[in-house]
Amino acid sequence: MSAKSDARRARRELVLNELGLTPLWRIREANAPEAAQLNQACTEIPAVGAGPAEIHTAHVDQWEDRRAKILRMGWEGLQTSVAGCVACPLCESRSRTVFGVGDPNADWLCVGEGPGAQEDATGEPFVGLAGQLLDNMLAAIDLKRGRNVFITNIVKCRPPGNREPTPVEAQSCEPYLARQIELIRPRLIIALGKIAGSNLLNTSASLASLRGKVHKYLDIPVIVTYHPAYLLRNLPGKAMVWEDLCFARSTMNQLLQSGH
Ligand code: URA
User: Fold this and answer.
1) Does residue 199 have its Cβ closer than 6 Å to ligand 1?
2) What backbone phi and psi angles, to 5 degrees, belong to 224?
3) Confidence band (pLDDT; 50, 70, 90) for 24?
4) Which part of the chain has CATH 3.40.470.10?
5) Shortest-distance atom of ligand 1 to CA 151
6) 25 falls in which pLDDT band (50, 70, 90)?
7) Ligand 1 binding pocket includes 153 (Cβ within 6 Å)
8) How far apart, in whole angstroms, are the C-alpha atoms of residue 78 and residue 84?
């Protein structure tokens, strides 16, 4: 097993520990039999009489099994699975899931944190004020929502009260984002904000220290910048975002020139 998958497994185990090994969420009606089956796989209670070690192992196996199934899905199956997901508590308070929007063959992928109230109501990411700002950011580098760019989030359900997603929620949703990235195969990912950057890059480094560098998600270049919502509260941040966007554009130009 590689060091990366070891680290991923360790992180997942940490999250499972945080869950207290107790499956808290039960299946509710899912949108598709496939999704119901999948969700059952990760919420089933291990056999009565199993001790903590067996329960723990069962959870890790179920978690790995669910991830492996998601990583084999096609685009439509993935959409159906996200729509019916009950893998973490966010499913209890959401109105609808927010899969993402745009060109599934895009060169650019923008990843935010999680849906807010308007996104939860409409099912589309970044439609509120932060979304208008994101559209302006995209325009600054000659991009337009829906054309050669796909926009999604770390978590596909709204965290109540617009709080940050917890590590458990982000980890539950991780296979969906991983599969989206695999299917889209973007040339470049822009991580919008600390939550997106730290989850994609599996780091707790500060956003300031992540800016201005080309990181990698597997073999895909990742550039980290501020979240548009941060800019709504902090106008001077605009100059730094402008810098990051110019950096992203020149990185993309280099990638295109070198045929990547
Ligand atoms: N903020 C996000 O991170 N994502 C959205 O979809 C909306 C606001």
Assistant:
1) no
2) -110, 135
3) very low
4) 94-258
5) 6
6) very low
7) yes
8) 10
Query: Could you tell which of 94, 113, 200, 232 is best to mutate to test the pocket of ligand 1, judged by most ligand atoms within 8 Å of the CB?
Result: 113
Q: Across-strand partners of 152?
A: 111
- Strands 101-102 and 149-153 turn out to be antiparallel
pLDDT tens digit sequence for 89-111? 999 999 999 999 999 999 999 99
CATH 3.30.460.80 fits 94-258, yes or no: no
Q: Give the mean pLDDT of the chain.
A: 86
CA of 113 to the centre of ligand 1 (A): 6
Q: Whose CA is nearest to atom 7 of ligand 1?
A: 126
**pTM for this model (two decimals):** 0.83
Residue 45 or 132, more confident: 132
Ligand 1 pocket residue status of 155, Cβ below 6 Å: no
The predicted pLDDT at position 55 comes to: 62
CA distances from 169 to 88, 154, 232 (A): 6, 9, 25
Q: What are phi and psi of 22, to 5 degrees?
A: -100, 125
| Ligand 1 site, residue 115, Cβ cutoff 6 A | yes
Residue 214 has pLDDT above 60, yes or no: yes
130 lines ligand 1 (CB under 6 A): yes
Q: How far is the CA of 151 from the centre of ligand 1 (A)?
A: 9
Stronger pLDDT, 198 or 1, i.e. the higher one: 198
Ligand 1 lined by 120 (C-beta under 6 Å): no
CA atoms within 13 A on the CB side of 116: 11
